[in-house]
Amino acid sequence: MRTRPLKVALLGCGVVGTEVARIMTTHADDLAARIGAPVELAGVAVRRPSKVREGIDPSLITSDATALVKRGDIDVVVEVIGGIEPARTLITTAFEHGAGVVSANKALLAEDGSALHAAAEKYGRDLYYEAAVAGAIPLVRPLRESLAGDKVNRVLGIVNGTTNFILDKMDTSGAGYSEALDEATALGYAEADPTADVEGFDAAAKAAILAGIAFHTRVKIGEVHREGITEVTAADIASARRMGCTVKLLAICERAADGRSVTARVHPAMIPLSHPLASVREAYNAVFVEAEAAGQLMFYGPGAGGSPTASAVLGDLVAVCRNIVGATTGPGESAYTRLPVSPMGDVVTRYHISLDVADKPGVLAQVATVFAEQDVSIDTVRQQSRNSGSGDEVGIEQSGGGRRVGGSGEASLVVVTHRAPDAALSGTVEALRKLDTVRGVASIMRVEGE
Ligand SMILES: NC(=O)C1=CN([C@@H]2O[C@H](COP(=O)(O)OP(=O)(O)OC[C@H]3O[C@@H](n4cnc5c(N)ncnc54)[C@H](OP(=O)(O)O)[C@@H]3O)[C@@H](O)[C@H]2O)C=CC1
Ligand SMILES: N[C@@H](CC=O)C(=O)O
Question: What InterPro entries does this protein map onto (predicted)?
Answer without folding.
Answer: ACT-like_dom_sf, ACT_dom, Asp/hSer_DH_NAD-bd, HDH, HDH_cat, HDH_CS, NAD(P)-bd_dom_sf
